[in-house]
Amino acid sequence: MKVLVTGGAGFIGRWVVAKLLEDGHQVLIIDNLSNGRKENLEDLKDDPNFIGLVVGDVENVPLFKKIFSKYKFDLCYHLAAKINVQESIDHPRETFESDVIGTFNLLEQCKEHHVKMVFMSTCMVYDRAEDESGINELSKVKPASVYAGAKLAAEHLALSYYYSYGLPVVIIRPFNTYGPYQKTNMEGGVVSIFIHKKLANEPVQIYGDGTQTRDLLYVEDCARFVVEAGYSDEVHGEIINAGLGKDISINELAKMIVQDENMIQHVEHIHPQSEIQKLLCDNRKAKIMLNWEPLVSLEEGIQKTFEWIQAKERDHNGK
After folding, report:
1. 273-292: average pLDDT
2. How far is the CA of 83 from the CAs of 36, 151, 308, in angstroms?
3. Per the CB 3.0–4.6 Å rule, which of 14, 144, 213, 292 could disulfide with 274?
4. In which band, very low, low, confident or very high, does the pLDDT at 318 lie, cut at 50, 70 and 90?
5. What percent of the chain is modeled with pLDDT above 70?
6. How confident is the model over 286-302, as a mean pLDDT?
7. Does pLDDT of 186 surpass 90?
8. Is residue 106 left, alpha or beta, with left meaning phi > 0 and alpha meaning psi from -120 to 50?
9. pLDDT surpasses 80 at 225
10. Is 231 a residue whose pLDDT tops 60?
11. Rounded mean pLDDT of the chain?
12. What is the b/e burial string over 227-240, where b = at least 16 CB atoms within 10 angstroms of the residue's CB?
C-alpha cells in the first residue's frame, strides 16, 4: 500500500513508519518537527519504500491537497498532534488548532480521496480506573486537560465522518508508551526521564506523592497495535485501547529504575488538576478484534530503553 503517516518523525510515529516499511509498504511522512526529529528517521530513509519526509503543518490545507492528489494513498495514520499537557493548559488555542482543526483538514482530504484514517487518541481522555479490571473503551471519560478535550473533540469529529460519509475510521487510545527514541528531557515520558536522571547521577523528581499509577506499553508493541488497526476492516467505527494490562505506581517505577531511594525526591505537581490517579488498561478488545497483545514485559522494556539511552548518551558525550 501507499501510506501517509502524519507525525511520523515523532517517537511513536518513527516506530510506526519502521513497521510499515518492514511490512513492505511505501510510506510518506508529514511532520512539522516541533516534536519529531529528522534523526529519528536516519536508519529508515534508505529503505526503497521510504518516499520521504515533508516538513509541514496539519493546518496547511493547500499542502494536504497537493500531497493527497499526488500520491493516491491507501491508508492514513494520523499521529501528528500537540501532546504536551501543560502546554495545552497554558496555550489552549494552539492545541485546539493543531489537534482539532488539523484533524478536520485531514478528514476532508481522506473523504475526498477515499482514504482510511487511523486516528491516534490517548488514554488521557479517561477518568481514573475504578478497580483492577482496568479502563475499557466504555469507561467514563474526563477531559481534565485541554489536550484531552481536543483529542475527544477530534475523536467525535472522525467518527462523524464514519457515520455521515462511510469513511473508514478507527480511533486508537494507547496507554503510556515508552522506549527508544523517546525524548529524555521534560517533554519525554516518565521512563526515559528517570533513566536519563539515573545515568546522569541526578535525583529523580516525582510529582505529588507518587502513588499515581501508569500502564506502561513498550513502543514496539504500541507500533504493532497502531499498524494492525490500519490493516483490519473489522474495526471501522470502533474505539480501541492498547496497554500492557498492568499498572505500577510512579514510586515503584522510580525505585525499579534508580535503585537508590536517596536519589528520589517528591515535588509539587505542576498540573494536579489533570493528574489521573490510576491508569490501568483493559486491552481485551484489542486482543479480540486485532489479535494483538503486548509481547514485551515492563522489566524487559525498561532494560531495552536503558541500553538505548545509555548508548545514545555515550555517543553524544564522546563527540
Report:
1. 96
2. 11, 10, 23
3. 144
4. low
5. 98
6. 98
7. no
8. alpha
9. yes
10. yes
11. 95
12. bbbbebeebeebbb
Which three cell numbers, joined as nine digits, stand for 26?
A: 511505501
With pLDDT > 90 as the criterion, what percentage of the chain qualifies?
Answer: 92
Mean pLDDT of 27-51: 97
Burial of 246 from C-beta contacts in 10 A (0-12 / 13-18 / 19+): middle
Q: Which amino acid is at 43?
A: D
Give residue 266's identity as a one-letter amino acid code.
H
- Alpha-carbon dihedral 310, 247, 235, 107, rounded to 10 degrees: -60
- CA distances 131 to 46, 105, 282, 285, 289, Å, are 47, 39, 11, 18, 24
pLDDT at 111 over 70: yes
Gyration radius (Cα) of the chain, Å: 19
User: Using CA atoms, how far apart are residues 40 and 219, in angstroms rounded to an integer?
Assistant: 14
pLDDT at 55: 97
SS3 per residue for the chain: CEEEEECCCCHHHHHHHHHHHHCCCEEEEEECCCCCCHHHHCCCCCCCCEEEEEECCCCCHHHHHHHHHHHCCCEEEECCCCCCHHHHHHCHHHHHHHHHHHHHHHHHHHHHHCCEEEEECCHHHECCCCCCCCECCCCCECCCCHHHHHHHHHHHHHHHHHHHHCCCEEEEEECEEECCCCCCCCCCCHHHHHHHHHHCCCCEEEECCCCCEECEEEHHHHHHHHHHHHHCCCCCCCEEEECCCCCEEHHHHHHHHHCCHHHEEEECCCCHHHCCCECCECCHHHHHHHCCCCCCCHHHHHHHHHHHHHHHHHHHHHC
Residue of 71, 77, 126, 147 marked active site: 147
147 carries an active-site annotation? yes
Yes or no: say if 100 and 141 are a contact pair by the CB < 8 Å rule: no
